[in-house]
Amino acid sequence: MMNGVNSITTSPNTTQAKASLRGARIMIVEDDVNLLEGIQTVLELDKYIVTAAENGRQALEILQSATLMPDLIVSDIMMPQMDGIEFLQQVRMVQSWISIPFIFLTARGEKTDIQRAKQLGVDDYLIKPFDADDLLIAIESRLTRTRAVQNLYLGEMSDLKKRILTILNHEFRTPLTYVVAYADLLEEANQTALNDGDVAVFLKGVSTGAIRLRRLIENFIQLVEMETGDAARTFEMRRAPILDVQDLLKLAVRDVMDGRVVQQSINVVVDKVPMFIADAAYLKTSLIHLLDNAVKFSGHNTVITLGAHQVDHEVCFWVQDQGRGIDHSEHKRIWETFYQINRPRFEDPGTGTGLAIVDAVAKLHSGRATVESELEKGSRFSIYVPI
To answer: What is the reported pTM?
Structure first.
């Protein structure tokens, strides 16, 4: 037991840190020099790398000049020049320091002090006097938790990078190949006589590649707008009464069929829908994405139906296909950005951004997007918008 002034006792089972935590950098901020040295000794016995400071101001100066940030900070509260509360506030104000775990080690154990510390974002709170075991366990648990979160984040980022690289490799290369190849053919053929039919074929190839490339770029731009909040501002400016739902649906069908051969029949079914407020451009974009998916995942000579009707106090837009369907276990993940179901197996074209945009547009309208689907039985995607 430590008396909060000049002594620390430790037991044999606390003198070895977990191998994965050895070498972690710990900053200790304590104005009692004897206690500071005692804590430093205990931590260094457990193979931690310790940086010591006698008050918050000195600790802040160390952080500002350091090339390597500490993995965790342990600080007293009552200190001269800059106390622990102000020091914590300063740490949490710097973007690159926000994620550093922070533990208060103090004699101030009143409930109001603990509550204030937690409001400021402290990760743990130890009261003097304390056992060295308690400090070591608190440090170990916080470091372990932080590393687990970091590893999860790095794993997700690595997976995201792989998806983006796959998209860039497959989706952007294909339309560019169309454009470049047919443009080269036109240039080579310029040396010889070409009939109108040949020119038409070459120009069609260039147009097909250009349209697909344009749609890919538009998808990424829309996704960035959704992620950055620009879409919300655009929505507030553009939202207006929607009077002709059928016209909106027909425009979506026209854009889907623009520059491509669709092997399915697309039917439009509209029940009586009352006037409602929405962003027509964003709604059309969502319907285009749903129709694109229906075309992509449906066999030739099948029927795709696009419809709209009122359900209670909402307008429901829906797309029904007769495609391969989606297993129930995938129903939540399909809305994730860049997610595609088993792309290595199916080699489906697309960027995996369409449904993420559909979901974001629905939420912009204070609505929701849903899916009903079973394998080999087709899918029905719906967007609900409040009236």
So the answer is: 0.54
